[in-house]
Design goal:
CATH topology: glutathione-dependent formaldehyde- activating enzyme (gfa)
Helix content: 10-25%
Oligomer: single chain
Bound molecules: zinc ion
Distance between the termini: 13 Å
Strand content: 25-35%
CATH superfamily: glutathione-dependent formaldehyde- activating enzyme (gfa)
Structural class: alpha+beta
Radius of gyration: 14 Å
Largest sheet: 7 strands, mixed
Number of strands: 7
């Protein structure tokens, strides 16, 4: 439905990287081609926690459910086979972006989170409303 790069401290620590790229998608539009997932609890910025689905073999995060909504998979976009198909449409929590990360000014940046109504396409908003 949308792809954003999150530069919050939690994502930096949890991915051991500069930022994470997330793409929320309906679970009905997600299919695991191979492998097996295991579920682990994880922290979230909102404090509500989330469930992380990891590859059983390597432990990499594949997707998570946030706000206890099992209908939405928040894909870890860069784990996809073709991650370049889903470049970030926004950068969020740039207030804690690492100083050496240089962002392209053509992609909107937000100190914290964006207003979904403003950022999502009308099609994505309609899809999102179906699973909330
Ligand atoms: Zn984050």
């Amino acid at each position: 439905m949308f792809t954003h790069a999150c530069h919050c401290r939690l994502c930096q620590r949890y991915t051991a990287s500069a930022f994470v790229v997330h793409s929320p998608v309906e679970m009905t539009n997600f299919k695991l081609d191979r492998g097996e997932l295991v579920q682990t609890p994880g922290p979230s910025g909102s404090g509500g926690g989330h469930t992380i689905n990891r590859c059983k073999n390597c432990g990499d995060q594949i997707y998570s459910h946030v706000f206890n909504n099992p209908k939405i998979a928040v894909l870890k976009t860069t784990t996809l086979d073709q991650p370049n198909q889903f470049p970030p449409q926004a950068h969020i929590y740039v207030q804690t972006k690492l100083h050496w990360v240089e962002l392209n000014d053509t992609v909107p940046q937000f100190d914290e989170f964006y207003d979904r109504e403003e950022m999502y396409s009308s099609e994505s908003l309609a899809r999102r409303k179906q699973v909330e």
